[in-house]
Design goal:
Number of domains of chain B: 2
Helix content of chain B: 55-70%
Distance between the termini of chain A: 64 Å
Mean pLDDT of chain B: 85
Structural class of chain A: mainly alpha
Strand content of chain B: under 5%
Number of helices of chain A: 23
Shape of chain A: globular
Largest sheet of chain A: 2 strands, antiparallel
Distance between the termini of chain B: 66 Å
Mean pLDDT of chain A: 87
Shape of chain B: extended
Strand order of the largest sheet of chain A: 1-2
Order of helices and strands of chain A: HHHHHHHHEEHHHHHHHHHHHHHHH
Largest sheet of chain B: none
Oligomer: heterodimer
Number of domains of chain A: 1
Helix content of chain A: over 70%
Order of helices and strands of chain B: HHHHHHH
Number of strands of chain B: 0
Low-confidence stretches of chain A: none
Largest interface: A-B, 87 and 79 residues
Chain lengths: ~500, ~180
């Protein structure tokens, strides 16, 4: 542990270099802006920032994206609490108590509770990230292909079971993503697959194009069809907005909520496929189930603000653990951070502490600085931040599309990639329209090559014996968890149907 | 019955596609030692699972209840939240706007290599804002021209990405503009 702290001190020295500090501040501002603007999601924002990192070194590139990721979990709180507009789905639970508290005449207090939640949750999760990552990476070094295959299958199963949409549609979305990843030359035999003689397809479909198209363009098309918002939000009163931090006695009274929310946020963040949104909802749900003042939830109590905000920000540190230690991105934002690593020729995974230890500790340190900086910005710059709500969505969206195009083009300097992202933009829209979740497709496209590689290695080295997934202890436990994850929604649905049937019988 | 058939149609299309790609996977050419799985194994497993899910949904469309499908955790949580959020409401749809947006986007992709990044981007930004029902033409003009210029400066001078200059007179225009901006 002392080693980790010594390395962390070195990381702080790196982060405090002027260039890194400037990049971090930029990332924080961009993350907050993206979260405040309803037309832009956190993942879209991080995607749009990626092309700006092409010419940066690895450390500032990852610092920029991580800073955006962490501040993106906080910025939307302002608009949710003050204007009842959740900038992100993460912020929906803040409407229930945050907006209610603001309506009762205490908006400054509500903002103070979100600030404390984001600050505390962020710092605790950063600490857990520092303490857990190296031991987890050491354990991961002992894993073979079957264990990695089992972990990847768990990641794919959890994105289906935790995400949006029906289970069938989520599975279809996932299988389409996995199929997209098979297009091109296969790694084991060098065979061309599903390319139809088209050179562009023979090169394979970059998962970045899938992400930029489906998340970026797809979201813009969806909102365009629904009609963009004009600058209908009146932000003229923003000059009076301020933040009032909770007192020590109030903090002590909510310590159980805080600790529980930190734990939920970190654990949910670690699970591949779950992110800040699920952490926020699950934490609010836990408060409703186990909180001391659960009966008052929804009336504007601090616990209802603290629980979702703390968990949302705490999920960031959790999500970075599987990314850095096993190279498995658990969410859209961490997938883009993975892309930044890969673009610089660094593969995150168990070896990352050996090969790029300095960078990793600089990222850890940047998370602490980012959490503190984000809260300072939130405290002092809130009046300016909420003014971006006055930007017309049509103008913002036009520029979002342009950033998507330039980002996609710049990755390979290939104009044909623009056709690919436009196609995935339309596909992303169709997915939204027909209620197929996008996240499983994107995660399938990202994890597909890793999963296939682990599958082929496992099968070839174990004589095509798939039961190896059940005969090795770690692989067996994780495979059973994957099966449980897929069965869980079916059981939940069956129980809900039975409950509904018994209610109907009771009424009859 | 028609509603059920319509619901099943999309899954039937996917099932057909899965069958077609499964057939394609069977014709991959590769040389593997006897008994070793080939590059077709992984896609065939995925396509088999995809077909199974589609068959299940087609069966459910005709035999079961359309309501009450098992869903992901976030879906259940968001469903409960939908009434409370302004940002997650289901708005009226305007297919005309969508078609217009997709059309100008495709036009941009087709034209950017011919008329160059600056001109294509300025036109696209203006057209997209207009399609998005933004009516302040002064803002549209300034935002599209200044925005395109800003993008050229940011990407060519700061991020060093080579953007398409176009052909013929558009190429001359792009290089003239780049010279004015000090980009070599």
């Amino acid at each position: 542990m002392l080693d980790a702290l010594a390395h962390l001190a070195g990381g702080f020295a790196d982060v405090l270099q002027p260039v890194n500090l400037m990049v971090l501040a930029l990332g924080l501002v961009l993350g907050l802006l993206v979260a405040v603007l309803p037309g832009l999601t956190l993942v879209m924002g991080v995607v749009l920032a990626l092309p700006f990192t092409y010419k940066m070194g690895l450390t500032p590139a990852v610092i920029l994206l991580t800073a955006m990721y962490v501040s993106g979990t906080y910025g939307g709180a302002f608009t949710a609490i003050l204007f009842r507009i959740p900038g992100e789905p993460i912020d929906v639970p803040l409407l229930w108590d945050g907006y209610a508290m603001a309506r009762r005449g205490a908006p400054a207090k509500a903002l103070g509770w979100t600030l404390f939640g984001a600050f505390g949750g962020g710092l605790v999760s950063a600490l857990v990230l520092v303490l857990l990552s190296e031991p987890v990476a050491r354990v991961a070094l002992t894993f073979s292909a079957p264990e990695f295959l089992a972990i990847l299958l768990f990641g794919l199963a959890s994105v289906v079971t935790l995400g949006g949409g029906s289970l069938s549609n989520a599975l279809i979305s996932l299988f389409l993503g996995l199929m997209i990843a098979t297009v091109g030359i296969d790694e084991t035999y060098g065979t061309e697959r599903f390319a139809f003689g088209i050179p562009m397809l023979a090169d394979g479909i970059e998962y970045l194009l899938v992400m930029v198209g489906a998340y970026g363009l797809g979201e813009v098309f969806t909102r365009l069809e629904q009609g963009f918002r004009g600058s209908s939000v009146d932000t003229r009163g923003s000059a009076r907005i301020r933040t009032e931090l909770p007192g020590l006695a109030e903090l002590l009274a909510t310590k159980v909520t805080f600790l529980r929310s930190c734990a939920i946020g970190i654990l949910v963040g670690i699970v591949p496929g779950a992110g800040a949104t699920i952490a926020s909802f699950v934490s609010y749900g836990a408060e409703a189930q186990y909180g001391k003042r659960r009966k008052e939830l929804g009336s504007g109590i601090p616990e209802g603000i603290l629980a979702p905000q703390t968990a949302a920000t705490a999920s960031v540190g959790g999500a970075l653990i599987p990314l850095l230690t096993m190279g498995i991105p658990g969410s859209g934002a961490t997938a883009i951070i993975l892309a930044a690593f890969l673009l610089k020729g660094v593969q995150p995974g168990p070896q990352v502490f050996v090969n790029s230890g300095e960078t990793v500790y600089a990222i850890f340190a940047s998370l602490f600085v980012a959490v503190a900086g984000m809260c300072l910005l939130g405290y002092f710059a809130i009046k300016l931040l909420v003014r971006v709500l006055a930007f017309p969505e049509a103008v913002v969206s036009a520029f979002v599309v342009m950033f998507c195009f330039v980002g996609a083009f710049a990755a390979r300097n290939n104009l044909t990639d623009l056709y690919v992202i436009t196609a995935f933009g339309v596909l992303g829209y169709l997915f939204e329209r027909f209620r197929f979740p996008i996240a499983p497709m994107v995660l399938g496209a990202i994890l597909g090559p890793l999963a296939e590689n682990a599958f082929m290695t496992t099968m070839i080295s174990h004589g095509n014996d798939w039961t190896v997934l059940f005969t090795r202890p770690v692989a067996c436990v994780v495979t059973l968890l994957s099966i449980a994850a897929l069965v869980f929604p079916l059981v939940r649905q069956w129980r809900e149907s039975r409950r509904a049937a018994s209610c109907r019988e009771g009424a009859a | 019955m028609l509603r059920r058939a319509r619901r099943a149609a999309s899954y039937a299309v996917l099932l057909g596609a899965a069958a077609y790609f499964y057939h394609l996977a069977g014709s991959f050419e590769f040389a593997a030692p006897a008994g070793r799985i080939g590059p077709d194994a992984w896609p065939k497993i995925i396509l088999g699972l995809l077909a199974a899910v589609c068959l299940y949904e087609i069966g459910r469309s005709f035999l079961g209840s359309a309501a009450g499908a098992a869903s992901g955790l976030l879906q259940s949580l968001m469903a409960r939240a939908a009434d409370d959020a302004d940002g997650v409401y289901i708005a009226d749809r305007s297919p005309g706007l969508l078609v217009g947006g997709i059309a100008v986007t495709i036009a941009y992709v087709l034209l950017v290599d011919v008329i160059g990044f600056f001109v294509a981007t300025a036109l696209y930004l203006a057209a997209f804002m207009r399609v998005g029902r933004y009516r302040r033409y002064g803002v549209i003009a300034v935002a599209s021209v200044a925005g395109s210029l800003a993008l050229v400066v940011v990407f060519m001078r700061i991020v060093y990405i080579s953007l398409p200059p176009g052909v013929g007179p558009f190429r001359a225009l792009s290089f003239g503009l780049l010279a004015l901006l000090g980009v070599k």
